Each structure stands twice: as C-alpha cells, then as structure tokens.
Amino acid sequence: MGLMMKNVKTLALAATAVAAISGNAFAADRTDLHGSDYKWMQFNAMYSIGEKPDNPATGDQHNYLEMEFGGRSGVFDLYGYVDVFNLANQSSSNGDKNPGSGTSKLFMKFAPRVSIDALTGKDLSFGPVQEVYFSTLFNWDGLNGEGVNSTFWGVGADVNVPWLGKTGMNLYGYYDMNAKEWNGYQFSANWFKPFYFFDNKSFLSFQGYIDYQFGADEDKTAFVPKTSNGGNIFFGLYWHSDRYALGYGLKGFKDVYLLEDGAGALALESTGWSHYLSATYKF
Predict the structure, then answer these.
(1) Residue 42: phi, psi to the nearest 5?
(2) Which of 121, 145, 184, 268 could be joined to 216 by an S-S link, Cβ 3.0–4.6 Å?
(3) 207: Cβ–Cβ under 8 A, 6 or more apart, which residues?
(4) Is the bond preceding residue 225 a cis peptide, omega within 30 degrees?
(5) 25 contacts: CB under 8 Å, gap ≥ 6
(6) Which compartments does it reside in (predicted)?
C-alpha cells in the first residue's frame, strides 16, 4: 500500500506540472450536474496496413469493424471502443489476423473518468486547465490467461492547448493484471480539432492521440524482451458530416507495449509506421 500511495502522489504532482502551461481556463458550469450530459456512438469500417507489433513471417494487414462510443453523465466521462478483426475470417498472405494464427478476434479499450470538480462541487480550473479527473483505462483482448489484461489508474485534466483547443491529458500508473504488479507509468493525450468548414456544414478535422509508457522494468530474458519505455502516436485527417465520416490516419510506434523491436525468438517489429483507412456511420 505504501508503494501504491507513493505512485499516486507522484502521478498527482506530475499531472499538475504537465497541465501548468500558460493560457486561460474555461471552467465547466456544474450548477446543474446533468446540464451538459451527452452521448455518442459510431461504427467504423477500418483497414490497417503495417500495424505494430507484427511478426514479419505472418504479415501486417487486416480489416476490422470498430464500435466507438463516449459521453458524459453527471460526474462520469467515458470513452471506449470494441474492435472485431478479420470480419470474413479470410486467409491471406499478408494478413496478421488469419484463422488459426492464434491471435485474438477482439480488442476492447474502456476509459472511464470521474470529474473531481463535479464530485466535490468545486471549480478546480486554473490556467489552461478546465476540469480535473480521477482517470482509469482498461485494455482487454479476447484471450484468457496471458492475453492483454492491462489497467491504468491516475489523474487527468481537460487542458486548453493553443490551436488544438480542449485536449484530454491523463497520467497513469500501470498495473499488469496478468503479473499482478505495478510496472511504470503512461502519459496519454487526445484531441479533436475541426479546422476547415464547407458551405454544407461538413468539415475537416485533425484528430489523434499519444500513449507513452515509461519507468517500467526491463526484462531482456523474456521470450519477447521488454524495454523500459515505448508508445505510439496517431495523426488523423478526417472529413465529417452529421451522419458520415471518412478518414486517413498515420500512426507511429516505438517499442509499443514495451516490446523491444526485433528482439527475441519471434523478432517482432514493434517500431515503425502504419496507415489506417476508415469509413464511419454515426448513430
């Protein structure tokens, strides 16, 4: 418990330092707790080329359907998605989700946050910080046992960043549910910036995110060796209408999921660039 409390204090101090940049705060009005509630859901038909990590022997391309959702209800803020890979269960020479490959058919990210402002009834905004949160993040795939079972706990804020506008920032401690141990930290940020509007009210947006892990224990003797830091960054250019969206994303990886690039028996590629194509229907 002492180590956990030390981690939480470290996260709180670091999050304050990250958020303390020059600018003006735009505090949320919490006189009506549910006055700014909203929710959204959309389905994205996706195709990925070069996604990491990948095994050079099996390929690096696949299609998938993504159900993406989010919203706000009182003290709770939520973002998440569920991916279903290789919808037609096809086999191809460059497919990394082929039948019989042992890979999972599913992946889920679930990221609930609790507004400390709304919970306490106090305006905690300062400088560019609009609202402060207790933040969590869960990553799961469809495998039992040694599949992806990771969870992150920390603090976050909505920060007004020049040009980008409101940007979600979170600093977490990482807990490995398979190993049952805390192992390092993760900084995450996400943004959605409409920057060009057409006469028919459709628009272009620059959207993306950063996930960066650091301070983890290295393990050079593992079957797939682990590094102390790594992550990914996504840059997306999208066209949006009220009901549809089309987009292209460029994603960069550096020892993603802390897997050392090209090391170990499998020599997995965990560093490089990938491309994503998407078509969206909004509900």
Answers:
(1) -150, 155
(2) 184
(3) 190, 191, 192, 193, 236, 238
(4) no
(5) 125, 126, 127, 128, 129, 130, 160
(6) Cell outer membrane
